[in-house]
């Protein structure tokens, strides 16, 4: 009976010990699990182990074996020169002793190696009574040392087991923190490289734009003179159609040059100090004024209708009519017209486009929604890159503006994205590719009634489409 009572008490003590260990490990994980810096982890760990064991002093050492130098040293109650002493010990070549001491040590008067090993001598000089080494990775190794207990008790194998578990958990936390920091540094390096490439691209485009301007002007002038001279002869030695074709293509080149020049100037202003990506930053163009959005967009839509009068499209406008905010009218008109043109060129005849104006909290949104062919997921990643069209390259051909599938040079969305970075609003896009045209090589006939997949207009409306949204702050 007495033995049963003793066994029960031992079981209860063992259970209490395990509960204490588990709670301590849990508390440690909560304390250091979310820390991102090695120094933060070692400081929190040292305070916790000193408190857990009631130690009078202690330290945590991390050493970089590849360099033979201390990376981190955190101490409490060991004196200001303790780091210097350990640093000298490691730099003197004693790191080998530290590296080969794989087991935990409880130091005392009867420790038979205490007088023979340099590590023991060093630890004893700071009255360290227990030493627990741990390994973070192949190069980074460390250890925890604690001084006398304030209670006067000696450290036990149970203490050694718990402290070893805590050290291993700390090693995992430190490794995770170092990996996290390495990822951050890699991302920052990538960001710097991208910024350098962007600046190089901007300079190259700027140079190209300037280099194109003069020869284009010279060629245009020469063609006008040549046309006038040849057409004055009877009969003309060169057909007028040839000059018309030359002038048309030169005009296209000139338009590209002017648009590129405008985009480059906007990029350069962003790089000089504007704050890109801040949607709550007020627009800062020189001609900002208060604009009533509904009548403004309505007027811009009516003006644009003259350009696509040859198209058979239903365009509706809906939303709140009292939305007012400060914006540059010229930039707003240019952006809306660009989005509308993009929607029209991607919507077949007999199709529909919706223009929606609404306010959500402190944000005003202008949405242009088409029920056209949509954009593949692959192409959606390149929408704002510029000089990019969604039609398969082998099938692409320039058409008149606002024609179905006209495509263009891909500069409208790039220009809007540049404005958003410069003036502090947001541009977003969402699209679903037409279910009957899964790839860029699948062509739409350009008219709903000619599509073999759609029996009604509603079938087309439900098959795909895109939405572009401009979001402005009204604060």
Q: List unreliable stretches of 5+ residues.
A: 273-286
Which strand order do you get reading across the main beta sheet? 2-1-5-4-3
Tell me the name of the CATH homologous superfamily of the largest domain. Histidine kinase-like ATPase, C-terminal domain
Quickly give the structural class: alpha+beta
Pattern of helices and strands? HHEEHEHEEHHEHEEHEEHHEHE
CATH architecture of the largest domain: 2-Layer Sandwich
In which range does the helix fraction lie? 40-55%
- Total number of strands: 12
Instruction: Say what the CATH topology of the largest domain is.
Output: Heat Shock Protein 90
Oligomerization status of the protein chains: single chain
Strand content: 15-25%
Largest sheet descriptor: 5 strands, antiparallel
**Number of helical segments with 4 or more residues:** 11
Nearest-angstrom radius of gyration? 37 Å
Q: Distance N terminus to C terminus?
A: 81 Å
- Mean pLDDT across residues: 81
Overall, the morphology is elongated
Question: How many distinct domains?
Answer: 3
